[in-house]
Amino acid sequence: MRDFALPGRSPIYGTGAMAATSHPQATRIAVETMRDGGNAVDAAIAAAAVLTVVEPHMTGIGGDCFALIAEPGRPVTAINGAGRAPDGLSLDTLTAQGITALDIQSPHSVTVPGAIAAWDELALCFGTRPLGDLLAPAISFAKEGYVVAPRIAADWAGQVGKLATNAGACTHLLRDGAAPAVGTVWSSPALATTLETIAHDGARAFYEGDIAEDIVTTLRDLGGVHTRDDFARQTAQHLTPVASKYAGLDLYQLPPSNSGIVANLMLHILARVDAAAAPAHSARRYHLFLEAARLAYAARNRFIADPEQADVPVDHFLSNSLADELASRIDPERRAEDLGSIPDAPGSDTIYLCVVDAEGRAVSLINSIYSAFGSGIVTEKTGIVLHNRGQGFSLELGHPNVIAPRKRPLHTLLPAIACRDGRPEIVFGVMGALFQPMGQVYVLTNLVDHGMDPQQALDFPRIFFEDDHLEAESGVAPQTVDALREMGHDVRPREEAWGGGQVIRIDQATGVLTGASDPRKDGCALGW
Description:
This protein is an alpha+beta fold. It has 20 helices and 21 strands. α1 (24-35) packs antiparallel against α2 (40-54), α6 runs antiparallel to α10 and α14 crosses α18.
């Protein structure tokens, strides 16, 4: 129970249905969609579409999408909406141009956007309404305008320099060279027209019609190698999720090239060093988390890639032997200067939302353009912000994740569902690029190891890596920071927040839903 004399908010409770997103209007639309007879998948798509309008720096139809769906009596299903590199892009292509690293604003960082294909697949296979109907609220916000919320205004203002370098961005995302202030009513007429075209003509209009032509022309004018064929071939995939156990729960993740299994590996390591026994706010717990993260992220960098073009040893990644080996390297009292190499396998910016409907269907969905405003490249005619997900590729010859034609990069996006005895219990996710696996581990262990409610689990202060040091949010106690420094960690204060997230917890015995939204964003949870 929280201290009601201190700032904060309670979680949201209900027994019918619930949604949690990073923006109040998106949450409202999700709840209204279900009130009007739609299911959780319909609600998730409608909310995701609204977020592409009202949080343009975090998400957009020019990005990618992943989702997990848990339906009563059926296995958890995964939808992979990751885009691919153009057919004409390779390491040789970049080397010939003298490119040794992909710049955020390079057209080569733009992979084919997969979000629209993913939404369409979700609607066709799991929803009850056509995609066009679900886009209507987003179209209304884009046409008629919405009020810019505080966190969004702050983030937007910090990206003016990036946006000012692109003609489309100046046209659609700035007014007289400035970002909108808090409380500004902002509309996106070109994006509204684009969404109307998709609603009327279907998802393929994004990949095969004038919209695709506008994107390809924009990128090629900047030196990109994208073609109409690259877009026409984009589809979403149905995949079997990867799962592993923690504290009696089965934690489901998207398989690689998604990096969800990094969170699972962290949890395996933490179970072996008895991190659950450390007090929630203690330096010891943060220390164990950070050392486990160093190891798990190193394993991610070593192994995760597109499984269609590389051998990704998922079984090894989640094996007891790897977790045992990595856990044995952690000194519970002090930071290790060198945690060693990762053993080979034997033989070889973002929005997150969750929805639960009255039938017990649960959706965990994440949609992203990667960096703030993605690549900063915006199409002038159609008003689409294009992501920079290609930065997830390696440019190291021979690396499993090396850039290659039609390849999908390592992805930081990881929606999650934790089930007990085959039924969803926790539907959750944490935004924040590389922070996401760490964020998941914070939230899940706060819930199951420390008995926090979903809001407390999200409110909990965070520490994570920034370059060669750690950065602690202001909520971390000074004595905890001092203790970590004594253990050998270089800890510095962080001005910004680490990520954001949403949680819905389902009590299968009583039917009670408990929802929460991260205070680091503008969002909320609602239910009935």
